[in-house]
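Give me structure tokens for this 512-residue protein.
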Amino acid sequence: MESNIGLFLTKRARLSPNLEGWVDVATERRYSFAELNARCNRTANALASLGVKKGDRVALLLMNSVEFCESFFAIGKLGAVCVPLNWRLVPDELAFILKDSGSTHLIYGEEFSGMAKDLYARGAEGTDVKEWICFGAEDGISHSYDAVTAKASDAEPPVVASGDDHLYIMYTSGTTGLPKGVVHTHDTAMWACVTINATADMHYGDRYLTMLPMFHVGALTPITLNVYGGVTSIVGRAFDPTEAWHIIQDEKVTTMLAVPAMLGFMLQVPAKDEVDTSTLRWCMSGAAPVPVALIESFDKIGIEIHQIYGLTETCGPACLISPEDSIARAGSTGKAFFHTHVRIVDDQGKDVPAGENGEVVVQGPHIMKEYWNRPDATAETIKNGWLHTGDVAMMDKDGFVYIQDRKKDMIISGGENVYPAEVENVILTHDGVKEVAVIGQPSEKWGESPLAVVVKSDNGLTATDVLDHCQGKLARFKQPRTVEFIDEIPRNPSGKALKRLLRDQFPGPAPE
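Here you go.
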């Protein structure tokens, strides 16, 4: 059971019982690793009393909180499978994920009680959830998280999973419009921690700040790594640029994670010049290429930005720039992690010469096991042991990788992945829409924002009609910021929309 992720917390509590393990910024709660593990065990034993067993899927609809952390590790100890839910999604989207994953238990925060009641009312047709557990005020349909954990034992539960057993299913938007569940195991999650620990400038006693949502691999893997390495997790409920600077000062943060849009916001507030950031060695940033100007701006105030490249399918790590190269090679995402292999290949899967563009492929023991119940999609993505990312990059003669373009036509808005097909499928359900193509436009605030290019079937259709149609059907970050009308969408001989031409025609910037 050496690779059981839940046991990471058990072992860290034994090795470093008094070391601060968790700081919950929003509630000002602090827990040592021993206290965190005791809470985790109570959660595990409470879930077991509600029927959770090995292989069961347990969904989490929680904001960043100690409850999310302890639930994740508790589910791991029980050998169940965690399904983190993006709380920015609407009930229709959540219902699909719950049904597709076969989740039988749902733990949610009271702020999502309205969503939970909507899902509950759908009955067995909507979800397979049998037990509803609410953290916060009771709402009439659920068990009280506080009540069931308070009466549970803090003894270590029997650990029955490890290795290739499933640990979590994290859903990502799909190019067909339907989300795909990325399956990670105890082994893949462990190796993600091992390869980051061997590569990044992190060590025992560091104080790590993240305000990214824990339903993303970009936060969940670092939280797991922090337990593995004896690092204090300082976790914000949501991102606020002014608050971020004060947390860095007050909590003596040594390293942190933020997407480029967050870093841009942080440069725009006066607090950056008012606080002491001397403890902060560096900040990891990814989810989109980090502008060189942004890296240089932070360097001027004494903070190194280390660009990372990774995916949900890689459990996070693929490439990382080293401290000595962060400025000299600004714009590069560095080299492959220690236990990771990265190549740049052509359409036949052969390596391209240094300096030429090709597709990024990644290999390592931290690569996902599969897409949940999607053997076709798994076979398309993992070929001969290599994960084909669909991302375009160049590798120079020294092995440094420069990301040139992203997966197919994916849009990254504020660090969130937006797949145009999903947005297009919703817009096409409007009777007044004949055709639609969704592209990204540059946004000073969000990096990119979706634009819907529409061909009308009803001449009376307005941009407001299209935007209103998206309300309640798509998470807010996926909704188009604006709509442009066109007589015909340019397509290639196979019928694929030529979005490159549309990006040339509608270069932006997006309205803020």
